[in-house]
Specification:
Blueprint lengths: L42 H16 L6 H8 L3 H5 L5 H25 L10 H24 L1 H7 L26 H15 L11 H18 L7 H20 L6
Amino acid sequence: MADMEGRTGSGAPRTAKGLGEEPADRRGGRSGGAKGAYHHGDLRNALIEAATDLAREGGPESVVLRAAARRVGVSPTAAYRHFAGQAELLHAVKELGQERLARSMEAGGRADSGAASGGSPEAAEAAEARMRALGHGYLAFALSEPGLYRVAFCRDALHPHLFHGAADPDGGDGSWEFRSFEILIQALDGLVEHGRMPVERRAGAEITAWSTVHGLAMLLLDGPLANLSPEEIHETAERTFDVLIAGLTAPPAPH
């Protein structure tokens, strides 16, 4: 999967450049271990980048504001001017993880979006192929970025009840928080639109599909499937998607 370097936090308030943000080593502090000293500019995003690297190395537990400040080369005091605490930094990295997950799904599904329209067999096949490709994109991100993937789905102290179990993603504020879920909803709606899924089976299908692919990702990361080869992973994913799509698209039971 190509590395996608999208940024978050662009809408957050920023302090003036250089205002209390000189590198820690200029004030007698330590900057050893930092990947690169901070030299004025966008400290907020520099801290998010450092925290993202920490997430890659150790998951949610490694996203610590002081550690990110140390890695950037500034004092904790300077870091606290941009984040009130660790929860805010973790939320920023979580949203970045969700963005990268959504981009990976979109990259996987773009080639299989299909040009056919209406209720033609080609359109139905394209809608089904898109579901499969989105699943592969989801798994690709989980397996290539396991630490960031775990952060993307960790508990969020700032917004602990965003989802409420409702199948209605929050897409109105530009947030990436539920973009991956919104992509899945659109793909399932496409199956109905093109006559591939019975309309009576549509309600709640996003939870079934999401649970299936997320569960497979966790089995591949932390469970008994962790030692599969790339070829075995692909075969396992294909069989899983076969069963999932067959269940979603089976003819309705006779009454």
